[in-house]
Amino acid sequence: MDMMRAIIHQYQHQRVTLVEAGATRHRSIFNGLKALAGDHPHSKLPTPTVVIIHDAVRPFVEEDVLVSVVTAAKDHGAAGAIRPLVSTVITPSADGCLDQSLDRAKHRASEMPQAFLFDVIYRAYRQCSDHDLEFGTECLHLALKYCHTKAKLVEGPPDLWKVTYRRDLYAMESIIKDKISQQVCVVMDTKEDAGCIGFLQGVLKKELEVKGTSVTLCPNGQDLQKIFLGECYNFVCINTTSADFHQITKLLDGLESRTPSLFYPVAVVSVHFLDSQNVSFSERMKELMEMKDFAKEVKERNIFLYGVLVCFTQDNLQQLHENVRQGASIITSLLKDRNAGLTGQLLIA
Amino acid sequence: MDMMRAIIHQYQHQRVTLVEAGATRHRSIFNGLKALAGDHPHSKLPTPTVVIIHDAVRPFVEEDVLVSVVTAAKDHGAAGAIRPLVSTVITPSADGCLDQSLDRAKHRASEMPQAFLFDVIYRAYRQCSDHDLEFGTECLHLALKYCHTKAKLVEGPPDLWKVTYRRDLYAMESIIKDKISQQVCVVMDTKEDAGCIGFLQGVLKKELEVKGTSVTLCPNGQDLQKIFLGECYNFVCINTTSADFHQITKLLDGLESRTPSLFYPVAVVSVHFLDSQNVSFSERMKELMEMKDFAKEVKERNIFLYGVLVCFTQDNLQQLHENVRQGASIITSLLKDRNAGLTGQLLIA
Fold first, then answer.
1. Which DSSP letter does residue A37 get?
2. How many residue contacts between A and B have a Cβ separation below 8 Å?
3. What is the pLDDT of residues A202-218, one digit of tens each?
4. DSSP 3-state helix, strand, coil percentages of chain A (rounded to 5)?
5. Strand B78-84 relative to strand B346-348: parallel, antiparallel, unpaired?
6. What sign results for the dihedral spanned by CA atoms B191, B194, A346, B176?
7. Closest partner residue to A167 among B78, B175, B348, by Cβ?
8. Which of B24, B88, B168 to mutate to test the interface with A (most CBs of A within 10 A)?
9. Under 8 Å CB-to-CB from A150, ≥6 apart: which residues?
10. Distance from B280 to chain A by nearest Cα, in Å?
């Protein structure tokens, strides 16, 4: 309960009432319904017309499926998301042999969310037996059995699946990484977009867009606040005018002031250029090595900072273009993997 | 067919006969059975007593479950792997409402592999209707319907699941990365394990073993061939005596000669040390920058090469230990993520 309270506080949720879980799925749901019925001392919420029941282990529920089940519940008294079966379902006999196999096309997997008229589902739970509360798993079944309410079945998206095995945690992590990689903001310290900066922008935009990511270009002076209001978790800072971290500091301060707290780590790639005819490689490296300490500091605030150094000589355009292309490829790799162990590193293109 | 032939050739499989697929699952299986019965012109295999049927979309099948279904098939005529249901299965009515929900505890998901006495399953397929061949999905059902053979059901592991959705591809990728990260070989160019080398070995071994990885230490002179015979996909090369890539080259040549071809990319981390009181940082960097070209070359042979430089000064032991610890953490990050975009980079601890 303390952990849940801390999460609610951190993300500033206002309209949440916590209720203690029961020993089984149905007992927990019943406790929640009682609280909504006003049977709970700390309940602040009025009794609703429609109630949605969902599983925390199905974290990728979108608003449209919630709207679908609620609308259907208003018409039918109950509604639930379903999916086609992936494997054939069979009935074993007592001795562990095949008794019968069900026609896969005639059956569906019952998933979550489900929605009910509050009166229907609360009436069902108040009538149901101890055996139901102890061993039952299906709310739609209770509504049918005790209130004769035939739930409307709504086809849900595949992302509603139940996170059950270790492989589901892997899948979940990759889906989240995918989701937060959808938008990249490229911030420049100059209004100019000529020369290698313009070329890098072009290559980067192209490479990212191939991967289905939208790219926002944000030249110097443009208000970053609009970006922070959105759900952008990826920033590429192109530094041309100075070697220090002034621009990055400004960006990170902006990110910090964003409320509620950052939900996922933000990845920031700081891009620098080295004209190796005019500046010594070792001098530039030394300047940029300060990034390590800086990255360590911001990592505590859930920001992953990486550096990329693009080397060039003014008179070798082909080499420059090749290195810029390599820089773009390194940047996209960093943003895709968000490797916590490589923050503060300066990668060289 | 050409792609399959190429795979069989590349991995030097000897006892494989390819058969063209049919338009449906059951027609494809029937084609395979016909080939085993000697009805196929190019068949080289004798008709077996027991035949195993498996799905390519269930790539993580272990030998023990194959043994279980074959043993059970010998006794019962047919056997198949099953799993508990994750979601409740329901029957929809014609108007898309809930008709009935099945008791989850009384049903199972039928998975693969399945095994049959060849005579049983071939007889079932020869008798079954066009409707079965067109719309059926369950081989156990055919054995029951046409040969009255009640299959023995064998509990399978969760990794038998069917790779169906995009999230399953993510899960699969992570499971493979997990599998090939189980073993790390640490190669040294010296027999000494004193000083910072010994300390690095200790920290690395500890950090990797926490993650359930076994670590083999391989001092200079020890025969690498034994390692290559195993399934090791991770090498950490600790270089102390020279700055060049002599040791790495020897290692990579060994890897190359391994047959059959490497199935997954091999990750190699080349670790170097810099005593910054005695050697100039920029000189050392320049030497090691050659790694980029070298890495590009070996990447074409499915080897991912990364560099790690650990800096220290002889008189600051605390700093040295801190940097070595950081180096170990960078190495484990590199081996875990196997990021193809970061090969050839020199990371600094």
1. T
2. 214
3. 888 888 777 667 777 77
4. 45, 20, 35
5. unpaired
6. positive
7. B175
8. B88
9. A76, A78, A144, B93, B97, B98, B99
10. 9
Distance CA B82, CA B98 (A): 26
**Amino acid in position B287:** E
Residues in B 261-280 with any Cβ partner in A closer than 8 A: 280
- DSSP assignment of B170-233 equals HHHHHHHHHHHTSEEEEEESSS---HHHHHHHHHHHHHHHHTT-EEEEE-TTS-THHHHHTT--
- Give start and end residues of each alpha helix (H) in B50-165: 63-76, 118-127, 130-135, 139-147
Q: What is the identity of the amino acid at A270?
A: S
**Which residue of A90, A104, A310 to mutate against B (max B Cβ within 10 Å)?**
A90
Hey, are the CB atoms on A89 and B101 less than 8 Å from each other?
no
Alpha-carbon span A119 to A193, nearest angstrom: 63
Cα–Cα dist A151/A308, whole Å:
56
Report A:110-129 residues touching B (Cβ under 8 A): 110-111
| Helix orientation angle between B139-147 and B25-36, rounded to the nearest 10 degrees | 70
Tokens found for residue A143: 């509504």
Half-sphere exposure of B119 (CA within 13 A, CB side): 5
A249 at interface of B, judged by CB pairs closer than 8 A: no
Q: Are B80 and B114 in contact (CB under 8 A)?
A: yes
**In 3-state terms, what secondary structure has residue A220?**
coil
A302 Rama sector, left if φ>0, alpha if ψ -120 to 50, beta otherwise: left
- Tell me whether strands B98-101 and B214-218 are parallel, antiparallel or unpaired: unpaired
> Which segments of chain A does DSSP mark as H helices, in order?
2-10, 25-36, 63-76, 118-127, 130-135, 139-147, 166-180, 195-210, 225-229, 246-256, 281-289, 291-299, 317-337
How do residues A66-81 score in pLDDT, each as one tens digit? 999 999 999 999 999 9
**Cα–Cα distance list, B5 to A67, B16, B32 (Å):** 50, 10, 16
CB atoms within 10 A of CB A297: 13
Backbone angles phi, psi at B148, to 5 degrees: 55, 30
Q: Is the pLDDT of residue B42 over 70?
A: no
Q: Is B111 helix (H, G, I), strand (E, B) or coil?
A: strand
ipTM for the predicted complex comes to: 0.81
What are B345's two structure tokens? 């980079």
pTM of the entire structure? 0.83
